[in-house]
Structures are given as C-alpha cells and as structure tokens.
Request: fold
Amino acid sequence: MPHAEPLSPARPSAPFLQKPAVRVIWPFVVGAAAILVGFLLSNTLPGYFVYLAISAVIAAIAIMGLGVVTGSAGMIALCQLTFAAIGAWIVALMNIWHAPGGFIVWLILGALVAGVAGILVGLPALRLRGVNLAVVTLGFAAAADVTLVQIQFPGSADAISVDRPAMFSNDKKFFFLSIIVLVVCALIVFFLQRSRWGASWKAVAFSERGTAAAGQSVQAAKLTAFAISAALGGVAGGLLAGQVQLPFAASFTPLQSLALYVLAIMSGAHLIDMAVFGGILWVLVPELLKRWNVPQDWGFVIFGVLGVQALTSGTSLGQGIRNLVWKRQDRKTASAALSALPPDAADGAEEIRTTTTATIDPALLTGEPVLSVEHLTVEFGALKALDDVSFSVPEASIMGLIGPNGAGKSTFVDAISGFLPKHGGRVLLGGRDLAGLSPTRRARLGLRRTFQQDRVPPLLTVGAYVRFVARRRLSTADIDETLAFFGCPPARARLSSVDVGTRRLVEVAAAVLAGPRLLILDEPAAGLSHDEHLALAARLRELPQRYGVALIIIEHDLDLVRSVCPMLTVLNFGQVLATGPQDEVLANPDVIKAYMGETELLS
Reply:
C-alpha cells in the first residue's frame, strides 16, 4: 500500500496563503469603523455624556484585561484597579517631572510598569489557584489601597493637573483619543488571543498537565496572562488620570476591583465585544440608579447578583449570546466522520477487514530504539508502583502496553513523560537521558502523549488547538489532510461543540502533527463506538510509515491491541511480565494468569 510522505512543516499551500489574508484584514476594518463611530459621538454627545462615555471606555479596557487573566487563563485576579492605579501614578509622576514624550509616552510607560507589577503579583499563581489566589490578589489590592491613601498621587497635594495632549485637550477630543486607545488595545488582545500565547492561556485554564504535555511552559502561560492583563489595567488607569486630571485613591478601591471582576465574569470578558459591553454596564447601571434616586452602591449588589448567576449557570451572558449565534454553524461542523477505512486505504481494504493480528517487520527488532527504559522504579512510600521496569521501543514501530487495572501503566506514562520526575533508573529518548527534564522540555524533544481524561481546551477551535499542540508551522492543507485522515471535524469547528470521543480524535491528530519521535496514546479509543474502534485501529497501523512516529498504545480493548500492536509489553503489579512479539507475549502463561477473566480474549 502506498503511503504519503511525512508532513513538511514548511510546505506552502494556496489556502494557507489566501485564507489568513481575510482574517487579518477584517479586525482592522472593524477597528476603523469603531474609530469613525467614536469621532461622530465625540462631536454629537453632550458634555456630560461624553464624560460618562470616557469612563465606559476606560472600564472596557480594564475589563478586557480581566478577560485575559480570568476569562481566558482561568485565574482569579481581584486587583485590576490596583494595576490601573499604578498606571495612573506613573502618568501623574511623569507629568510632575515634565518627562519628554508627553501623555501618550507616559501612558505606555504606565502600562509597562503595571505589566511588571502583574508579573510579580502573578508569581504566587505558579503555585496557588482558586480561592487561595483570590486571597493573595485581594490582599495586594488592600495593601496598595492603604499605601495610596497615605502617599497620594504625585501632584494631588499641590493640585497639579495632568496635562492632556494638545490635540485632545478638551473632553470631547479626549474621548476620541480614548476610543483610539481602546481600538489599539482591542486589536492587540485580538491577535494575542489567536497567537500561541492566547492558546496557552486557554489551555492552562482547562488543564495544566495537558498544556505541559503540548510543550508549552505553564509558568510562562500564567505570567504572560498576568502581565498583559495588568498592562491593560495600567492603560485604563493612565487614561483615567488624563480624564480626571487629578487622580485620587478613591477611584481604585478593592471593592471596585471586586465589582469589576464580577462584571467581567458576568459579561464574558474573554470576548472583546463583551468587554466593551461590560464597560457600558459599569457606567450605565450607576447612572440609572442615580436618575431613579437609588443609592449608587446598589450597583455593586446588581453586579454581584449577575455574577452569581453567571457562575452558577456556567455560562456568561456574552458566551450565551455567542452560543445562539454559533448554534447553526455547530450543527454543520461538529460531527466526526470516522469511517471504517482511512480515505486512502481502499487498496488495502480486504487486508484491514480480515487481519486480526498485527505482524512485525523483523528489521525493526534490530533498529535503533527511540525509547529505552532501564530499571525504571517509582515508589510512593512503601509502595513500589513500578519495580525495575526495562524495555525498548524501536523507531517507527508500535508497542502495546497492557496489563490489569493497577498494573502501573499510568505511573509508567507519567514517569517517562516527566510528570513523576523522582524515580530510579533511566529513560532515554533517542539515546538522550531525560533525567531532570520537565514535561515541557521532553515534549519539545519529541516525546508526546495523550491522556485518559479530556485535556482538550473547549475555548479553542479545532485548528487553533492543532497549531498550539504542533508547535511548528503548518499549512492549512497539512492540517485539513490529517484531520480528514482521523475523521475529525474541520479546523473551523469549535471544540466546545464536539463530544468527548471526537475530542480524543482531535487530540491524537494534533499530537501526530507535532511530528514527535515517540507518541504515547493512553486509551485513545475511549468514548468511541465499536465501528469507530475498528476505524481508529486502521489509522493507527498506518502512523509509523505515514508520519515516521513510534507509538506506545495503552488500551484495555485487546481486539484493538492485537490488530494494531505487533509488539507488546505486559505490566502486572509494577513489574514486566513479558515483552516482545505479540504472539509470544499473548501465549505466555504468566500473562494469561494475570488477566484471569480475560483468558478467552487471549486465546
């Protein structure tokens, strides 16, 4: 049977050159339209409403920052207005010093300083999460609030106003400037969300282990999210300093940061348009309460109720609206199409239907091993989860790793992929000792794995997830070809709209496109029907020759193992019972005894 050549990361294609052009242009068109609308509003709105509109824009930028750290990266940050205070403080200080460059340069400098502060505040996020991280960030906000009350903003004691740019000296013109800044920030966030950084934020929010296994640093993902979020907070604070011209600590209290966080959760601030909507609500709700003679502090109560509703329902207002819009498209793109045979396997149809046992090429047994495991031992206290495990996997081969429940298969995978770094023995990938290397580093060296549990982040599209996992330049043709080979939905489909079994197929396809030397598939057929099991088996058999990758397949379905894996290693109570060609291993009395109730399947 003929096989396609392994994918080339640099191979160009017409779709790859054409499609992104449209995607790159439309955000700028939308941004230009927003600036035009801002210009018209700045010349038509009454003065008081212009001032309110500036406040809405400032809040939208701050909420957009929360959309990065909370909406995308999934971390609780209750100090966004503290970063805004840092940006305002820097602008006020530069104004006192008459620093060169003027307001725009001061605004950028304030954002940079706030971004650095965001990294420092984000350091605890490397070890803390959930409520513990919320306490740390809220404590930082409270400490900063006390400090600001004591030291005040530069120039506030002497009533030295912050100088606006000459071209934007009055409120109407400053509103137009704030619109321009909002559009610039939105474009930056838009492209970051679609970059590898953005994919890493969404991946780390869903699964840190899955992120590391894809070769992405979890620490870098978290710190960049905090840095970008804080920088946007700094921009918002700098604009606020220009708006009020005499900033005071009362504008940056922890209670307001908490309310802003709740509003971001409620609106779905990882969506840029919803961040703008949240900014409008930030101004609109208190203004309506004021006109109805209701104390404006009730606005916090309203935001809190809306936030609780979003948290309990699991869906923000913005995401709910988007889901309604995307529902029709999802029906067209979300289903998998895993047929009984790969698209290019017609010539070997009879062989795939009738062959029940995988055969081995004798040349593989003499080839160089891509993976060598030597005396691998893992202990948890007095329990030896793995005891002196040794075997090797030849290049471009398929090894099945089987054993009863509790045999040590999951521990083995965690140990060689770097999630259990403290173990005895050695693990070598292509002759290189992996001792001391993190899961991220091992993935980048060519050792990839999938998981039993769902580790595919739902906020990404299929194509964005594939590119994130692959960590290399891929043409649209390469992606479409591999997705079709595995029967996956098209690249534009949203992962949140597909079932778990289909996400498993996408996970395998993405790992294959990474071009690893060794790919460990941990129960890849979980969630698939019997027919899909057979179809997946047909595809797995082709992977070594088609993509040049060696496989270790961990699977309880012995029909799939026998049809795919010419070589087997059997674990039982952390020890190797047998390893070698399939027919010899399955005939081993110790293996049959270990399986007991599964004896009939092995006969």
The beta strands are 369-380, 383-394, 398-402, 424-429, 432-433, 447-449, 518-522, 550-554, 567-572, 575-581. The two ends are 30 Å apart (CA to CA).
